[in-house]
Design a protein that fits this description.
The protein is an alpha+beta fold. The protein has five helices and four strands, in the order αβββααααβ.
Length: 151
């Protein structure tokens, strides 16, 4: 009888500890966090994101790319003028604002909409923000180097 009671109590404790972990959500720690691509892309740009968390929420978000001289893609008029004129493209000066605004509004990177004609940049934005998840939850403010080839 004692053995049965002890086993029942032990089983109940294990079940409670398992379910307690299911309901916990990681809290984002206040601070400023940065992730950047490991390498420059084939056009000479290195994408980055800077996220500021305040009161456990996204307060400000910056997304852009820089060249080797530190020039921002969203400010490079020559680069944007090279876009084909036969289609209405969402250019870096626009998507670099819209994607962060969407994240601040929705507070969940999975809910951020991919922008048509800026699909690759939208996906890069989402990957960079997602790569910061562990750092944000642990309060690690060191720059995270995102390597798309890393497993």
């Amino acid at each position: 009888m004692k053995k049965q009671i002890i086993c029942t109590i032990a089983a109940a404790m294990i079940a409670v500890s398992m379910f307690a972990g299911c309901n916990s959500t990681a809290t984002m720690k206040d601070g400023t966090y940065r992730a950047e691509a490991k390498d420059y892309d084939s056009h000479g740009w290195k994408e980055y994101v800077v996220v500021t968390i305040k009161d456990g929420k996204y307060e400000s978000v910056e997304f852009d790319a820089v060249d080797k001289d530190g020039k921002k893609k969203s400010e490079d008029q020559e680069y944007m003028a090279a876009y084909p004129s036969d289609k209405e493209y969402v250019k870096p000066d626009e998507y670099s604002k819209r994607l962060p605004e969407d994240l601040i509004k929705k507070q969940n990177i999975e809910d951020v909409d991919v922008i048509a004609t800026a699909t690759t940049s939208s996906q890069s934005f989402k990957k960079l923000v997602t790569s910061l998840k562990d750092n944000i939850n642990k309060g690690i403010t060191d720059t995270f180097i995102f390597d798309p080839d890393a497993k």
